């Protein structure tokens, strides 16, 4: 099989040939049809701290994987050859694809059967790949950590690959959604999604005082400003890792009796819920599609912030 291999930070990925994986006990082999590209992969290429969570190198990157099962290992009873599946990047049995085993920037992947999520017939492989991480992470932060409920006033910071999915899901589920993004294109996308109001700065949310604010940007000031404008007794959920250190106003946190929570990843249940929203047509995420051979340059485009929505490589 061919794959884009990571060796260490500040070294570009390279295409390599490796033996095809086999379906060992409890695992399946998937013919990859689509693989999402993620900013965390850019982080691994630039920041050596990521080496702490990559179990071995060299390794093929790619943790947003969707495809068709081509081989089933011993003990696997819930899936069969020909099934369309996504792979949960947060594994139940260790690190996930691209971190604990060769990932989706390849023709084939061997994945644990317990991490698979069936793809509905009317969900594309590109959508399914984006749903495994961007969908899972955004949904988990909004509805599991944030506990968003119908009728709540919800602020969303950052209408990118994650924020757009969360915003639309919240609109569909009956929340009053207010979006914040510096980008005019992102603000226009938020309007198309159906949010009640769009702002350029987090501080503009003061007139709304949302009960819940989910920060998908995480640039330090965004989180601090969110605490300043969230409602009394409200909740701020931090997802984005735009900056890994931040200074917040503790008086807002204390005097408002606000909750500040972190959220990372999710699980297969989150992915399944996102797939339902895709299948119903309630969410149609903005995707930029590239080919397998363009993955290396695609990561560069991500790093330069040239991508609208979520970037997905199609493996045909």
At CATH level 2, the architecture of the largest domain is: Alpha-Beta Complex
Described by strand count, sense and barrel closure, the largest sheet is: 7 strands, mixed
Low-confidence stretches: none
CATH topology term of the largest domain: Quinone Oxidoreductase, Chain A, domain 1
Shape: globular
**What is the gyration radius calculated from CA atoms?**
19 Å
Query: Which CATH class of the largest domain is shown?
Result: Alpha Beta
| Fraction in helix | 25-40%
Enzyme class: oxidoreductase
Protein name: Alcohol dehydrogenase
Domain Enoyl reductase (ER): 8-313
GO molecular function, one term: zinc ion binding
Descriptive terms for the model:
alpha/beta; Quinone Oxidoreductase, Chain A, domain 1; about 25% helix; about 325 residues
Topology overview:
Layout lengths: L1 E5 L7 E4 L9 E11 L1 H8 L12 E2 L3 E9 L11 E4 L20 E5 L3 E3 L6 H21 L7 E5 L5 H10 L3 E5 L3 H10 L3 E3 L12 E4 L5 H9 L5 E4 L11 H6 L3 E4 L5 H13 L6 E5 L3 H9 L6 E5 L2
Organism: Oceanobacillus halophilus
Family: Belongs to the zinc-containing alcohol dehydrogenase family.
Protein name: Alcohol dehydrogenase
């Amino acid at each position: 099989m061919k794959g884009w291999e990571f060796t260490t930070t500040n070294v570009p990925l390279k295409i390599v040939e490796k033996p095809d994986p086999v379906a060992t006990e409890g695992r399946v082999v998937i013919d990859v049809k689509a693989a999402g590209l993620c900013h965390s992969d850019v982080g691994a290429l630039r920041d050596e701290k990521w080496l702490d969570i990559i179990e071995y190198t060299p390794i093929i990157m790619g943790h947003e994987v969707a495809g068709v099962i081509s081989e089933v290992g011993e003990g696997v009873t819930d899936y069969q050859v020909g099934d369309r599946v996504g792979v949960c990047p947060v594994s139940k049995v260790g690190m996930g694809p691209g971190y604990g085993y060769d990932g989706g920037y390849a023709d084939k992947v061997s994945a644990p059967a317990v991490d698979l999520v069936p793809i509905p017939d009317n969900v594309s492989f590109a959508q399914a790949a984006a749903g495994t991480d961007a969908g899972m992470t955004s949904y988990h932060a909004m509805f599991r950590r944030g506990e968003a409920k119908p009728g709540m006033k919800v602020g969303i910071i950052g209408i990118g690959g994650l924020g757009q999915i969360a915003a639309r899901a919240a609109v569909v589920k009956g929340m009053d959604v207010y979006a914040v993004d510096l980008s005019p294109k992102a603000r226009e996308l938020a309007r198309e999604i159906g949010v009640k109001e769009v702002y350029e700065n987090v501080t503009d949310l003061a007139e709304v005082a949302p009960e819940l604010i989910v920060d998908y940007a995480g640039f330090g000031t965004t989180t601090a400003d969110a605490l300043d404008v969230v409602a009394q007794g409200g909740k701020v959920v931090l997802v984005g890792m735009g900056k890994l250190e931040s200074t917040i106003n503790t008086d807002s946190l204390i005097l408002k009796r606000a909750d500040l929570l972190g959220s990372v990843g999710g699980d297969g249940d989150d992915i399944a819920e996102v797939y339902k929203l895709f299948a119903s047509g309630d969410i149609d995420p903005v995707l930029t599609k590239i080919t397998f051979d363009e993955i290396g340059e695609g990561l560069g485009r991500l790093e330069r912030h040239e991508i609208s929505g979520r970037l997905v490589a199609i493996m045909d």
